[in-house]
Every structure is written in structure tokens, then in C-alpha cells.
């Protein structure tokens, strides 16, 4: 980013929010404020145009800017229109900028952030001098796909952009400025997703953030005590009723949410709506948060015959209400229970047991909070066959006959007179016979149920697993 553009942005930080002196019945173009059910905020547009994207309302309430488009994507022939309250009345709308859309005021309302109508998005800045707005100047030139730049009262800048690293095509990110350089840092999980994270609004006091989540609609997130943002909650079906909800803006008093939606793919019924949301913003903060997955569980591997123990890392699941209340369950991803040899502690989230055979287990583990909200993720446990006791030591294991009617001969050659141990287990993992021997032994499995048995052969710290079939 050029130093001149950075200087322009930082100058805006000296401004303060000025609250409206307009008569109450003249606020918001004199339109009757809605209740909790969204209503159209009537904004004139030319034929074949529709009002869309975020609306901008100055801190003193005397200026309203909005964009009008012919279609998407990219936005077709966008213009930004302007209303002004002067002489005790509203005048306008007049066209303020052509080829731009999505205005957003600075804290002091003496500057406005806008963006081009092309893709990738680029951010521009216009500065107010009296009643005249300057020609837009490009800023944040080093950012790719810069969308919906905003600044808070805490002098923090937020934007949707391709940060490094990025979870999705774009991530909701925070900007930092060092000299002439601009760095975007993703706000990470659970705010961002692998999808394209574009439209959003952050409260000037940073007490909440509203995001347009693909497939869900408008959601709200709150800052937690660890410098992160909580798992977003949907604003509900009363707000999220259209084909898509985008362009959120909330008034400085947090009373009214403005956003764009419609029900037709051709945008013929697309409008900017508004609804009262201060009660909703407060109530959702105190409802249950759904646990989410922060880190993928690493796949595990072990050897047949070895004792297997694995605890799900504490950093896997996060519950913004507190991780200590989570309980866990585990099944195979096909819905079947875990094999009999593998036990799972639902409180400690620990797997334990001794596998008797090679296998690859695809496991789904679910975390549940006290309210019943849950999330799940998967990982693999690969059980490999133990190698025959080290070939370099000249040992060879022979088991015969196999299949057998009951008597099984076991020969371990090259063991140099050392005492070996063999355990025989059935398919459930239950030990049915244990025996020590030197070099060779006979195992009498007569009378045992027909089926597959597993021989666990141990010599010093070395282990080998072999199968035998009893007919």
C-alpha cells in the first residue's frame, strides 16, 4: 500500500462519532421504523435497477448513501446514490459515484470507503470537503480481492480479503500497517470457513460481528475472553428468509439492521430491508453456543498385538460455553460400534485396547454439550501387522498345520535358547491360552469353537501376530 494512501486512512482516526440531531420523525428518510419483522427500506432506483449491497448512514444521520445495480456477477453498471438532510428536509437522491458500490463511512463520517464493480474487488476512498466528495482514490493496493473495509472506534481495520494463510477464497481479516506495508491476518476459525467469506459488518465498539455465511445466511459472533470470536449463531428464519442475505449494516445505536435479500434469481424483487435487532443481538449472546472443530484429529497407527492408547487432543473441539462440560462418543463412520478390542472413555475422550489383527478403522467422534448441541469429526486408526521377529537375527516363525482341527505346532527358529511367550486370543480379543516355550511348542486348541484365532508371540520386547484357523 502506498504511504500516501496510508496517511489518508490514519488521518480519519482523529474523528469521533457524532450522534443525530435530526428530529426523530425525520430519521431514516422519515420512514416508519420496523419491528422485529423485516420491512423494505424504500430507496428510489432507475428502471431495471435494484438497491443492494451495504447501505451507509453517517454518524449524525444527515447523509445516506446506497448502491443501485442492474445485476450480478460482477455487479452490472453500479452507481452510488446520496440523500442529504438539509434545511429540515431530505434532498435527493442524486448520483454520487458511477461504477462503484457498497459505501461505508469512516468513524467521523468525513470519508467513505467504496469498491469497484469488477472482480477482484478493489477498495477506494473518497474524502469529504464541505458538501463535496473527492474523486475516489484507490487504497490497499497490495491486497487481493479487498471487500467491505471497515474501521472501529478502537482504531482497528477489518476487511474481507485473501490473507495468508486463508481458510476460504476470502477471509474476514484484521489489517495492520507497518511503514508503507499492509498486512491482513485472518480472524480464523470459527468465524471463517473454507467457503468464500465476503460480506460482513463489525460494530464500531467491536461488541459483535454480523457475517453473511454461505448456506446459512446472516449470523452473529461475539468477542470472547481470549481475543477470538465465538462460533457464529444464525439470526434466525425471521431475518434469513430470502435466497441470499448480504450487505449487512447496523446503526450505531445497534437498533436497526439493514441488509439485502430477495426471492427471485433475476433480482426482480431484491430490496434493502431493515428490522429492529437490538433485542436479538443481546439475547443471542446469552443462548447456548454450539461446539466447533478447531483442529483436525491426526490419523493414528499402531501394530497388532501392541497396547493402543490415544486421547483426543484438548485443542480438537472448542465450546464457547466451556470445554469442561463436553462429553464424547465414538463410532465407526458407517454407524457401526467400535470393535470389541477398542474401548472409549466418553469423559476423558481416550481410546485404549490391544488390536489382534491388521485393520483400518474410520472413526467418527462426536462432542456434545449439556444443551445437546454437538459437532463431529473423523480420523483413522491404521493397525499394521507386526513384522516377524527381526529377520536380521535369523528368526523365522512357522505355524502348522493351518487350518487345524485343534493341535497347532509353533516353531521359532534362531531364538538361541531364549524363552518366548505365546498368547492365543479369539476374535473378541479374549485370551484363551497362554504358554511359554523355547524354540517350539504345541498348542492344544481342541474343543475351542471353530473360527479364527490370533497368536501373539513375544520374545524380549519383540512381538509378532499370526492367524490360525481352527476347523
Tell me about the largest β-sheet: 5 strands, antiparallel
Report Rg. Answer: 33 Å
Number of extended strands: 37
Mean pLDDT: 88
Helices, by number, come to 2
What general form does the structure show? elongated
Ends apart, CA distance between termini: 78 Å
Tell me roughly what share of residues is in helical segments: under 10%
Look at the helices and sheets and give the structural class.
Answer: mainly beta
List the main descriptive attributes of the protein structure presented here.
471 residues; five-stranded antiparallel sheet; four-stranded antiparallel sheet; mainly beta; disordered N terminus
What would you say this structure looks like, in words?
By secondary structure, the protein is mostly beta strands. The protein is built from 2 helices and 37 strands. It has helices at 3-11, 278-285, and strands at 39-40, 50-57, 63-69, 79-86, 89-98, 100-105, 111-116, 123-129, 132-133, 137-139, 147-151, 157-161, 171-178, 181-186, 200-202, 209-213, 217-221, 233-234, 246-250, 256-261, 271-276, 292-293, 300-303, 308-311, 317-318, 327-332, 343-345, 350-353, 359-368, 374-384, 396-400, 407-413, 419-425, 431-438, 440-444, 451-459, 462-470. The strands form 10 sheets. Strands 6, 7, 8, 9 and 10 form a 5-stranded antiparallel sheet that branches. The chain is elongated and about 105 Å long. The chain starts with a helix and ends with a strand.
Amino acid at each position: 500500500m502506498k504511504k500516501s494512501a496510508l496517511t489518508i486512512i490514519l488521518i480519519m482516526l482523529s474523528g469521533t462519532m457524532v450522534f443525530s440531531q435530526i428530529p426523530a420523525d425525520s430519521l431514516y428518510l422519515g420512514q416508519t421504523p420496523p419491528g422485529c419483522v423485516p420491512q423494505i427500506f424504500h430507496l428510489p432506483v432507475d428502471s431495471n435497477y435494484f438497491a443492494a449491497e451495504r447501505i451507509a448512514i453517517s454518524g449524525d444521520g444527515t447523509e445516506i448513501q446506497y448502491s443501485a445495480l442492474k445485476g450480478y456477477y460482477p455487479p452490472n453498471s453500479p452507481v452510488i446514490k446520496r440523500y442529504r438532510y438539509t434545511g429540515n428536509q431530505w434532498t435527493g437522491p442524486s448520483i454520487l459515484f458511477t461504477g462503484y458500490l457498497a459505501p461505508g463511512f469512516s468513524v467521523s463520517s468525513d470519508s467513505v470507503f467504496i469498491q469497484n464493480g469488477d472482480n477482484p474487488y478493489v477498495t477506494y476512498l473518497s474524502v469529504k470537503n464541505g458538501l463535496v466528495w473527492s474523486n475516489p482514490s484507490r487504497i490497499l493496493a497490495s491486497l487481493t480481492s479487498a471487500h467491505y473495509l471497515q474501521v472501529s472506534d478502537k482504531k482497528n481495520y477489518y476487511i474481507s480479503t485473501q490473507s495468508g494463510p486463508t481458510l476460504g477464497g476470502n477471509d474476514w481479516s484484521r489489517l495492520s500497517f507497518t511503514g508503507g506495508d499492509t498486512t491482513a491476518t485472518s480472524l480464523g476459525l470459527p468465524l471463517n470457513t473454507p467457503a468464500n467469506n465476503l460480506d460482513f459488518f463489525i460494530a464500531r465498539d467491536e461488541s459483535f460481528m454480523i457475517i453473511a455465511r454461505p448456506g446459512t445466511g446472516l449470523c452473529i459472533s461475539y468477542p470472547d475472553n481470549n481475543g477470538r470470536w465465538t462460533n457464529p449463531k444464525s439470526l434466525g428464519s425471521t431475518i434469513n428468509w430470502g435466497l441470499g442475505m448480504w450487505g449487512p449494516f447496523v446503526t450505531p445505536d445497534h437498533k436497526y439492521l439493514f441488509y439485502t435479500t430477495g426471492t427471485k434469481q433475476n433480482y426482480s424483487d431484491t430490496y434493502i430491508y431493515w428490522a429492529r435487532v437490538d433485542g436479538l443481538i443481546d439475547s443471542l449472546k446469552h443462548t447456548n453456543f454450539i461446539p466447533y472443530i478447531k483442529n483436525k484429529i491426526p490419523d493414528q497407527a499402531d501394530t497388532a498385538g501392541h497396547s493402543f492408547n490415544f486421547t483426543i487432543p484438548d485443542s480438537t473441539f472448542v465450546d464457547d460455553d466451556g470445554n469442561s462440560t463436553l462429553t464424547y462418543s465414538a463410532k465407526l463412520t458407517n454407524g457401526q460400534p467400535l470393535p470389541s478390542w477398542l474401548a472409549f472413555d466418553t469423559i476423558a475422550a481416550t481410546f485404549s485396547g490391544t488390536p489382534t489383527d491388521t485393520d483400518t478403522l474410520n472413526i467418527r467422534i462426536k462432542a456434545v454439550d449439556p444443551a445437546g448441541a454437538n459437532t463431529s469429526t473423523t480420523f483413522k486408526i491404521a493397525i499394521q501387522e507386526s513384522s516377524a521377529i527381526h529377520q536380521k537375527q535369523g528368526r523365522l516363525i512357522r505355524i502348522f498345520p493351518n487350518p487345524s482341527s485343534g493341535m497347532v505346532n509353533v516353531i521359532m527358529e534362531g531364538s538361541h535358547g531364549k524363552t518366548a511367550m505365546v498368547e492365543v486370543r479369539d476374535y473378541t480379543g479374549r485370551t484363551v491360552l497362554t504358554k511359554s516355550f523355547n524354540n517350539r511348542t504345541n498348542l492344544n486348541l481342541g474343543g475351542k469353537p471353530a473360527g479364527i484365532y490370533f497368536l501373539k508371540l513375544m520374545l524380549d520386547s519383540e512381538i509378532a501376530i499370526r492367524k490360525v484357523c481352527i476347523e
